Amino acid sequence: MRWTIGSGASISILNEPWLTNGEFISSDVPGALSLHNFTVNSLMNLYDKSWNEQVVRQVFSADIASKILHTPLISQVEDDRIVWKGERHGRYSVRSAYRLCVTELIDSSYLWRPGYWSGIWNLKVPPKVKNLLWRMCRGCLPTRVRLLDKGVVCPTTCVSCESSHEDLLHVFFECPFTIQVWNTTGLWGSVQHALTQAASPTEAIFHLLENLSADLSQRMSTVMWSIWKHRNLRVWDNVT
Amino acid sequence: MLLTPSISDNDNDLLTAPFTKAEFRDAIFSMHPDKCSGPDGYNPGFYQHFWTLCGDDIFKECCAWLTTGQFPPDLNITNIALIPKGSLQVSMKDWRPIALCNVLYKIISKVLANRLKTILSQCIFDNQSASVPGRSILDNAMVAIEVLHFMKAKTRGEDRYVALKLDICKAYDRMDWNYVMTVLHKLGFHDRWIHWMRMCIESVDYSVLVNGEPVGPIIPGCGLRQGDPLSPYLFIICAEGLSSLIRDAKSRGVLTWTKVCRTAPSVSHLLFADDCFLFFKANEAQAHVMKNILATYELASGQAISLPKSEIYCSRNVPDGLKTTITNILGVQAVLGTGKYLGLPSMIGRDRKATFAYIKDRVWQKINSWSGKCLSKAGCEVMIKSVLQAIPAYVMSIYQLPHTLVESIEKMLNSFWWGNGRTTQRGIHWMNWEKLSAPKIHGGMGFKDLSAFNLAMLGKQGWKFITEPDTLVARIFKARYFPYGSYLTATVGHNPSYVWRSIMRARFIVRGGGALDYRLRCLYLYS
User: Fold this and answer.
1) B469 vs chain A: nearest CA distance in angstroms?
2) I want to staple B315 with a disulfide (CB 3.0 to 4.6 A). Which of A22, A201, B161, B476 is the partner?
3) What is the pTM of this model?
């Protein structure tokens, strides 16, 4: 929060966040005792609403004085008002406070993963499809290789071909069955191109989402969902 | 009656001004399109959809009814749906009668209610915080909790206090019509307006829905309908009657109000619609005065206070003998303990984990109910975001939940997410909650970090202390905790209540987070 200075008559100089960025002058600064009952307007030229530089430099040390002089005074503002920095309308909102708290207090940015995530969430497809894409990109889709990583004892053979390494890349891009599916849906060209561009299947998906038209991205994501569905049916219900 | 006129001519002009089509439009479009329809079977969605066709006709017809002061006889026929209260239904008391009015009537009533709303804060004192724009249920709860905390801490001295929590049974349904009209009259409402209110309330004709079939008609002689947009406003206006009696008793010097400290504004009673908290001094004379006040109010308004269900709490310095005398005079037996006021725990002891444990149980219940069992993964996401995470939100807006509790709730939600709707430890937990709570554009699921959310909610209360210093709650907290400073410079102080402690913890957010106090950060991260 921060004050926007109107007349300055209701803001006391000490302990109030009226400097730029909501900084305040603490009551520990030298000479603070004598400032106790003064308000901000005593540092201003009243006739044209500007800082009285002479007084400011006299009272405060150089660094605080320069901070004060850099605080803007807007002549249109008439009343002293407290504004919240997080929202444009200047009123407190839990949403912006939460954002502030997460970014500045616990600093969760180490949890962030790079990627074109908005591409997934903005797709116009059923939410279950989006969720599948998200799980693929976060590596929590239980392909057999991933399951083995997690300590689940199971064979790692692919259910529709002879390959013995069923991972994300294989299920969605390398298995002959899948390639056939991509071919029939007319997407194999772009998928192949994306695979040569990207280092991992996740990156390939992001690449595809970024470069395909909205229509084709929708088709691509639904095809992926169907491939996974087919794979699951094979594994669990033995449907071919 | 001791009510003084508080409605000026100006307000009356506003209330009875000619109607505009925009008002009717607003009224219709502010209703939820799928709300239940009345006996005629048209729901708000119908009127919204065909507003361009029938808007003019509705507007003209309604205006004609209001100018002539006469509704057509079948407009105000109302169905009553009985909604069960609690798990076991034995008598009629265990049902909540919700009135399903015709939408056409509701439009008119909503237009009138919207007008009434604008002038409400002038005729309702700040002890009442229901339905008045700009007042919050939390204000009321915070004042009550602060006063109870003060009484709990009062172990010595001659000033002894009593708090009485009233249980009013069937408050809306028992309201006396003549009383409503008298109160409106005394407050200085225009005759025309009073006539409109009379039209709306008294032309009712009920049918009760039993197994979907209307049974009736029942012609009522009292009561406000629950489901009519006007009712809440009329009810709180009527509750002003009780307030005025209490204010009068104070001015005559027979009733002492409670102050949490010397400079604080005194509090005599807190109302939230029919939820009522009364405070007075613990002696026989005042107990008698209070009893008389309640009897007068009951007689005038038709309300019935169920004394066996009401609760009493005495400050610690009240001797046992006096306690029994007072409970005998008032006829109240139950002692206010760890119960809740307005859904919030009103007294927080040392064992915070136990006090707030019920939140965890509620989340657990919701997860285990049938509704969570057959959801897709995407359904689980919506369930977590809009149902499960919302359960603690209300309590979190004034209390900081213990860290262990927050952690165990998050753990529960996490296993719900990865277990596909089951809570047993099945399914691989591919990611911890922390990773899931990252924003969606950064690869998380956008779930909430509950402790951060908690602090953000608490910050709102602190912000209100700064920007709305004239509310009752802000004045009380100022007097008690920062008489010479502001929220930003205050210290936690001597023997603080848990509410204040919680709000203080969120202060760095309100300050803007710029220069973060290192100590606070440690406290937050490692507590």
Assistant:
1) 12
2) B161
3) 0.84
